[in-house]
Amino acid sequence: MNNTATVQKKKTAVGPRLGTFKKHFLRDWQLYLLILLPMAWLIIWKYVPMYGVQIAFRDYKVKLGILGSPWVGIKHFRRFMTNPKFWQYLGNTLAISLYSLAMFPLPILLALIINTITREKFKRTVQTISYLPHFISLVIMVAILQKAFSPINGIYGAICKILDIPISNRYDVWGSAAAFRHLYVWSNVWQNIGWNTIIYLASLSSVSNELHEAATIDGASRWKRVLNIDLPCITGTLGIMLILRCGHIMTVGYEKALLMQNTMNAETSEIVSTYVYKQGLQKSDFSYGTAISLFDSVCNMILLLTVNWISKKASEGDISLF
Question: How many CA atoms lie within 13 A of 133 on its CB side?
Answer without folding.
Answer: 18
